[in-house]
Amino acid sequence: xxxxxxxxxxLVTQMGNDKSIKCEQNLGxxxxxxxxxxxxxxLKIMFSYNNKELIINETVPNRFSPKSPDKAHLNLxxxxxxxxxxxxxxxxSSHGKSDPSGTDTQYFGPGTRLTxx
Amino acid sequence: xxxxxxxxEMTATEGAIVQINCTYQTxxxxxxxxxxxxxxxxxxxxxxxxxDGLEEKGRFSSFLSRSKGYSYLLLKELQMKDSASYLxxxxxYGQNFVFGPGTRLSxxx
Lengths: 117, 109
Fold this sequence. Notes:
Mean pLDDT of chain A: 91
Oligomer: heterodimer
Distance between the termini of chain B: 41 Å
Helix content of chain A: under 10%
């Protein structure tokens, strides 16, 4: 009964290809996120969705397009992959503003290691 | 702008106490989080501070001073399994989270 799951775990692809990463959470959370962690281990937020609506869109190339078909899923599609896209991508979820504790702790998925050759 | 600073690496001995500092300058503040991340794994939640003072959770404690833009994570009775990266993160306005660069802690026997 994994809380936040991502597929695939590893993705190796050629420059210029288009790929997708899927994320699902079974915690009943309202908010989901995508983060990129580069080789220096810096974790940077890319997108955040609340109840299927985009609420945060950091300075990310428009080759990256998130899609949330329902509040339990947030997928990331990447067009025309570049070498610099190689990183670990983490999906996360949290209660959002509805968190009764007010903490709004994020729960992270296992990560997808993307390697662009 | 948003800026969070942490030491890059720290080393300590099994059984000892270690303090990992975090300083931040963010455009909004709605709480500070500490996460632990073992190599090759996802970050996991350790602690949360939104008011000034100390929060204690077993071997882990976290302190916050909002006026100084400063927090620390205190780990007591260090164990080998505590070797990991420790990430400080600030929640700004809305659901915007900014993470620090992380501190890699090595616990030696």
